[in-house]
Amino acid sequence: SRYFGCDEFFVVLSGTGVATLNDMEFSVRPGSVVVIARGDPHALRADASGPLEFVAVLAPAFNPSHYMPER
User: I need a surface site. Which of 22, 26, 33, 71 has the fewest CB within 10 A?
Assistant: First the structure.
């Protein structure tokens, strides 16, 4: 997905997974912070070990009109 109106920060609280940012993949674990500039394509998914819990921080606040799902 992409958000054009804000920057995003994903803070991983528990679990492990993979963050994809601009077609590059990174492993994430508790304490990981993923920084996403506005407009950058990105995704976050849990790996096979179980659920992934994270907090998403958006600045400025999220506006649904700025969201563009990947096709």
Answer: 71
- Count how many residues are written for the chain: 71
Contacts of 24 (CB under 8 A, 6+ apart): none
Residue with token string 């528990």: 14
pTM: 0.81
The two structure tokens encoding residue 10: 């994903």
| pLDDT tens, position by position, 40-56 | 999 999 999 999 999 99
